[in-house]
Amino acid sequence: MTGSVSEAGSPGTAQLRYAKVWKRFVAACIDLALVNAVALPTLLILLWMIEGFHTKLGLEAEPSRFLAGMLTVVLWLTTDWYYNARMVSGEMQATLGKRCMGLKVTTLDGDRISFGQASGRHFAKFLSTFALFVGFLIAPFTRRKQALHDMVAGTLVIER
Asked: Per the structure, how many domains does the chain have?
């Protein structure tokens, strides 16, 4: 697809329509709900098991709760990363939330991104979150409607 996508007003065979920020926000909310729907029941079972069996594991109550909390955070972050990176680097180029909103993630040339690039984009969202979500809030004011993590990863979110 390289070379076949252009910005509005530029010569090319297709026109890029950058995703509206409100659509990206709704897509992110859908994705968060989906990740939580899958991850939270598993995490609650893990917490219950550690709480119930901490003496058999040779752990005191407080350290076992700390361990359970740390495992919960690590498992949730891993689930969220893998879901996002796998989906946006996949054939559909979008998470389920983005698909519902008619969006997809591409390289700056309109091509499909790699799993590594998708992973970098996902972890760069932590940068977008720092300083009161400014990295997300800049998107409406950039030429290509890119949030900070999109700029770092060299990606665009466009309308299908």
From this structure: 1
